[in-house]
Sequence to fold (103 residues):
Amino acid sequence: MELFHRDPEGSCFLSDGHLSLALIKHRLDGDTPVGMNHFGFHITDTAATSEALAPAGTPKPADRFTDRPFAEYRAMDPEGTWFDLSEHGFGGPRPPSGPAGRG
Fold:
């Protein structure tokens, strides 16, 4: 993976063009647990994805009201792990187009 962004707080964003990984600097104040905080998916249709999640017991994703541009929606999986959904994507390199990249 290659670093494609580092924010002023020290968080690093990496990608191989297919998968992106955000290593967010942990703030030691508050009750946020240490460890994996959430994961995200780049999707094409929020309404269709939300409808498909309901049979698995996942509540409808909610708007993310934040000034961070990485995802528009957030939900929680049946095991209690947060996840983000984004139609516009998370930034970073895009996979190559053509047969291998399916772009």
Summary: The first helix runs from residue 46 to 53.
